[in-house]
Amino acid sequence: NAIKHGIAVTTGGGELQIVAKRTPDALRLTVENPGYLGKSRAGHGVGLAYLRQGLVRVAGRFVLEQHGPTVRATLEIPQ
């Protein structure tokens, strides 16, 4: 999603940053890419719905936020 909806539609592309961090209670994955939430119309919109549905089963958390010209997705999976 970061590449398809962010970098691919941003003039000049951009950088993709991926950070994985393990805490005593969870695994946290953070992905940042250039782009703006809600700008892309490509796709069918089911990817995030499937992700959220799967997280309900494991009491996980997913947050998608706009930070200036960057979109940050944070996924936490309990360990």
Describe this structure in words.
The structure is a single chain. The protein is of the alpha+beta class. It has helices at 2-5, 47-58, and strands at 17-22, 26-34, 61-67, 70-78. The protein is globular. The model has no long low-confidence stretch (mean pLDDT 86).
Q: What's the topology here?
A:
Elements: H1 2-5, E1 17-22, E2 26-34, H2 47-58, E3 61-67, E4 70-78
Antiparallel strand pairs: 1-2, 2-4, 3-4
Number of H- or I-type helical stretches: 2
**What order do the strands of the largest sheet run in, or round the barrel if closed?**
1-2-4-3
Query: Sheet bearing the most strands, described?
Result: 4 strands, antiparallel
Low-confidence stretches: none
Which shape, going by the Cα principal axes?
globular
Overall helicity: 10-25%
Please give the radius of gyration in angstroms: 13 Å
Task: Produce a short descriptive summary.
The protein has helices spanning 2-5, 47-58; strands at residues 17-22, 26-34, 61-67, 70-78.
List keywords for this structure.
2 helices; single chain; alpha+beta; 4-stranded antiparallel sheet; 79 residues
